[in-house]
Amino acid sequence: MKLSKEAYQAFEDIVGQNNISDDPALLDTYRYPLSHTAIHLGPYYKVYTPRSEAVMLPGSTEEVQAIVKV
To answer: Which of 14, 32, 57, 70 is deepest in the core (most CB within 10 A)?
Structure first.
């Protein structure tokens, strides 16, 4: 499901322009947990993690609460 422009803007209003991104290159860096990278599991275990629609880096508990509300 594609993240709408309105939702992206709402998240950006919460965390700030520098703390949200939908750049595919950046999204791929957050795609796998460090312990489950494609290097460790990869196609051998048929593990696939879909790319996220955005990455957010909230800076406070209040920002996390606002993100959950959106």
So the answer is: 14
- pLDDT, mean of residues 30-48: 60
**CATH code linked to domain 5-69:** 3.30.43.10
Q: Supply the pTM of this predicted model.
A: 0.75
Q: Which residues contact 44 (CB under 8 A, 6 or more apart)?
A: none
Q: DSSP of 26-49, one letter per residue?
A: HHHHTSS-GGG-TTTTGGGGT---
What span, in angstroms and rounded, lies between the C-alpha atoms of 21 and 14?
13
Q: How far apart are the first and last CA of the chain?
A: 16
